[in-house]
Design a protein that fits this description.
The protein is mostly beta strands. The chain has a domain of 72 residues. It has no helices and six strands. A six-stranded mixed β-sheet has the order 1-4-5-6-3-2, with no helix packed on it. The protein starts with 28 loop residues before the first strand and ends with a strand.
């Protein structure tokens, strides 16, 4: 009986990565409390202080990252729901944010 040359046999563990199972990048936290609202960034509230849009600058911010913002006396943590970078300047972006509720 002749063996089919197309069939492959694995000995041990196959060394094939499945892209859907690759480790995702861990979310990062960016502290914007030392930046000045209206000069360094703009935050426009949608639902009180629970959601909003922010325009700012800085490279590397991605979906699910968290931003810490200050309103002068208090600071709040927001999760990036969506983010789009401008083409010029390339580090400027607009993001939809959602407040991270306190536990």
């Amino acid at each position: 009986m002749q063996e089919n040359p197309i069939v492959a046999r694995f000995i041990g563990k196959p060394k094939i990565k499945i892209f859907s199972q690759e480790a995702k990048r861990k979310p990062k936290t960016y502290n914007y409390t030392k930046y000045v609202w209206g000069e360094d960034y703009i935050f426009e509230s949608i639902d009180g202080e629970n959601e909003g849009y922010m325009t700012g600058s800085g490279k590397g911010i991605e979906r699910d990252d968290e931003l810490i913002l200050s309103n002068g006396t208090d600071s709040f943590r927001y999760r990036v729901e969506k983010i789009d970078y401008y083409s010029n300047p390339p580090d400027m972006w607009i993001a939809q944010l959602k407040k991270v509720m306190d536990n």
